[in-house]
Design brief:
The chain has an 8-stranded antiparallel beta sheet. It has one domain. The protein is built from 5 helices and 8 strands. The chain is an alpha+beta fold. Pfam families: DUF3332 (PF11810).
Length: 152
């Protein structure tokens, strides 16, 4: 987990990764939305809810339970009772986060040398944002996942 945390050293970057997970066009990854609450917890609380490398935690989502295994370079997520899994892998050499399922790989986020982050969008385009509150809000709007809603 230490290596992973060093690769993602900023809560805004963690939130950008969280946002990128919502735009992955691979069906097998669609069920991850429930599990990705982990990244929001880390972003808002500052503490990592996942386990040590190799440890598996069970997470309850809207669509069932998921097993989240912490790897040296990311996570393996499997819906309980299913054989298919998705790996969320940090590529240190390219400074990217990728979703990998079987032989398919999809780049989610690239951290640029200038401190910005480039998100790969579902429609095949990309957008570059500054990993701060405004950049995250812009990314949420771009992917149609705005969390602005009225409180009762």
């Amino acid at each position: 987990m230490k290596d992973w945390n060093q690769g993602v050293s900023n809560k805004f970057v963690n939130e950008l990764i969280f946002l990128a997970f919502h735009i992955v066009p691979v069906y097998e990854i669609a069920y991850l939305a429930d599990v990705l609450v982990l990244n929001s917890i880390e972003f808002w609380s500052g503490s990592n809810p996942t386990a040590s490398i190799g440890e598996v935690k069970t997470v309850q989502g809207e669509n069932g339970e998921y097993l989240v295994k912490t790897n040296e370079n990311g996570y393996t997520i499997t819906k309980k009772g299913e054989d298919k899994s998705v790996d969320l892998v940090y590529n240190k050499e390219n400074n990217t986060w990728n979703a990998v399922s079987g032989e398919q790989s999809f780049e989610l986020v690239k951290m640029n040398e200038d401190g910005t982050a480039t998100l790969s969008l579902q429609n095949g385009t990309s957008m570059t944002v500054i990993p701060d509150a405004q950049g995250i809000a812009t990314a949420r709007i771009a992917i149609g996942n705005s969390l602005f809603f009225a409180a009762r």
